[in-house]
Amino acid sequence: MPSLPEPHTTLKAGRATFRFYLGDCLDILERLPRRSIDAIVTSPPYNLGIRYRSYDDTIPREQYLKWTGDWVARAAAALTPGGSLFLNVGGKPTDPWTAIDIAQAARPYLQLQNTIHWIKSIAIDQKDLAVGHYKPINSRRFLHDCHEFIFHFTPDGTTPLDRQAIGVRYQDPSNIGRWQVASSGVRCRGNTWFIPYETIQNREKDRPHPATFPPRLPEMCLRLHGLDRVGTVADPFLGLGSTAVACAQLGVSFIGIEMDEGYLKEALARTQAALEPATRRAHRSH
Hints:
Rossmann fold; alpha/beta; two-stranded antiparallel sheet; globular
């Protein structure tokens, strides 16, 4: 196996090391040592014609799905036996099979252990409440698209999870004592996660990438996997660095890969900003 090239940038904070690579994910994933990554949280291009700066998002579907299998195979080889790949995939109403096709392309290499629904916006009738953000669809055929998939893949489908790490408190705690599994006061959140985007004022300035997820999403994925079993996290489609930001906040080592230098610079700036509070806390503790 060829050795890893020198990172574009390396950051250190406490015991955590953050390595950022500028290049093609297939090349870098191929060079990662086998069984060296505990968790991958990523969102690849969906091949829906989104205008990226350095990637053609309009390649033929068959070619795209083959490419998907190629990078997933390399990612699977880099995962530890108890590792997790959290794969965020969206779509569009006129192409409803995108997410399912991508999951099927990963099927030969990993087991689908959980399917999580990332809810971006929700309306609750009982309280006459609508919260979250979505992109309106002007159509007489389609509903507004308010969710995306997070496919949780593992090597053999038996990876243990820390479900209570992202648990929710019981609304009525009076009967908790009756159930041994409820003694902590929280229950499993389930497979629907409401994670809204932060409100922004200027798209070009605050979110200069056409397809991102909030850092809260990878944070929840990593907590669910179990922080005590996370040594190194990777994101082969770094984008603006949401997974890197989550790792900075959690104090977890990270490897990011991005082919666009402009996006990489944005991700570095966001990661450094996320590291500053942790660095200040470390100095105060000494």
